[in-house]
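go over whats below:
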Amino acid sequence: MSPLLITGTSTEVGKTVVTAAIAAAACVAGRSVAVCKPAQSGVAPGEPGDLAEVERLAGVTRTLELARYPDPLAPDTAARRCGRPLLTMAETVAAIEALADADLTLVEGAGGLLVRMGEFTLLDLAQRLDAPVLVVVAAGLGTLNHSELTTRALQSAGVRCAGLVIGSWPADPDLAAECNRTDLPAVTGVDVVGAIPAGAGAWGRDRFTAAAPGWFTRTW
């Protein structure tokens, strides 16, 4: 099975919580899960990063981070600023392929689809691995444009989009959010396959893992 790559329409749209939710739902279904974060920026050595959050929420213990940089910047810029070599495609592919014995391997990108994680973008990685990409989107104003740009880039590159997930669905959605939930599939041609309740990332593991399967469409 090819890995599932997870990107967002921008930064701070909920990629890590969505990654944790997919991992939790898979674990509940009895599947083994591995999670890779090729490049983590904005986190100092020894501090908990995105993978620590996935472990806390989903209980997944098989995780892999390849590069970490202290400045909260795009990974390639952060690497240059601290004098470290850029993450290469070859080492990233090899690391992901080493996790292939898991039933499901999730790979969380950095920022959006075309952010450079090193010498490559997540789009480049998806092409190299022949892997589908799940897009995490915002609920409110601006999401239609951002989502269509991202899905068009995937389509142009010949990469399958595995669906859209709303990374933070408000408890009291406004008119824009309600309309966007209907309009997102219409403008992108891609189904909304899930929505994560706002604030779910602050939940404890038991509550999070119990609820996670219900956040995704049954067929997906």
Summary: The chain has a mean pLDDT of 96.
